[in-house]
Amino acid sequence: MRRVGNREVALWRAHDGSVLAGPGACPHMGARLEGCDTDGTDVVCRWHGLRLPSEWPGTWAPLPAHDDGVLLWVQVPTSGEEPSSAPRTAPRPPASASFDAVHVRLARCEAQDIIANRLDPWHGAWFHPYAFSHLTVDEDASTDHCLVTDVTFRLSRTWGVPVRAEFTCPDSRTVVMTITDGEGEGSVVETHATPVGHDANGLPLTVMTEATIASSPRPGFTAAQRLSPVLRPLVQRTQARLWDDDLAYAERRFLVRTGRVAT
Length: 263
Hints:
- By secondary structure, the protein is of the alpha+beta class.
- The protein contains four helices and 15 strands.
- The chain has a seven-stranded antiparallel β-sheet with strand order 9-15-14-13-12-11-10. Strands 1-2-3 form a three-stranded antiparallel β-sheet, with no helix packed on it. A three-stranded antiparallel β-sheet has the order 4-5-6, with no helix packed on it.
- Helix 1 crosses helix 4.
């Protein structure tokens, strides 16, 4: 069970492993469709055993869902947005030649505040000196649709890896950083911001989902793929440290932007 906006969404898998989705409440008595059994492509309500959508066609309609191998997606009707046949994402390295790690956090701000943080690379080396250095924005190469940077990713206090990276937005709630030159060329970091409602004080809640899909032509990268169960928690720990800082930034931006803090 997940929330998207103010809508509950149930997610389950069919016998063939495909992901399916639908409203999170049973249409008969409103039971929460969490922890339910499944039967073929149906989810079975725990209260009355209704098989959905088979036994309640039309009113309780499935939602489009997609499994891209790293993230699960569900499409809900959104005012002002045209439905799409599949998620809009930037090119990723092939799964057979990459390694992925995902970090998820909840923030008290709007999606635009998280996106604004990611589209402000100038703060990177100053705010995250433990992770970045020598960051510059190539103003000549950048356009209204693509931000181009040169940056060194720190491996230690004295060692780092210089790369060139591009930031693009395949949709209004996603920022993708793609390494275009240097170590890990072709690797991507996707940042997705999903509105999930409001807290008890009326503040907006947004889930930040960051997917790092790393790739490298180096022969040793094959060994890193085999060690993914060991390496994934290390990458997620780095992601968590960065987002400790960046979500504080995004939440503060929301307070200032909406006048909740006088400036």
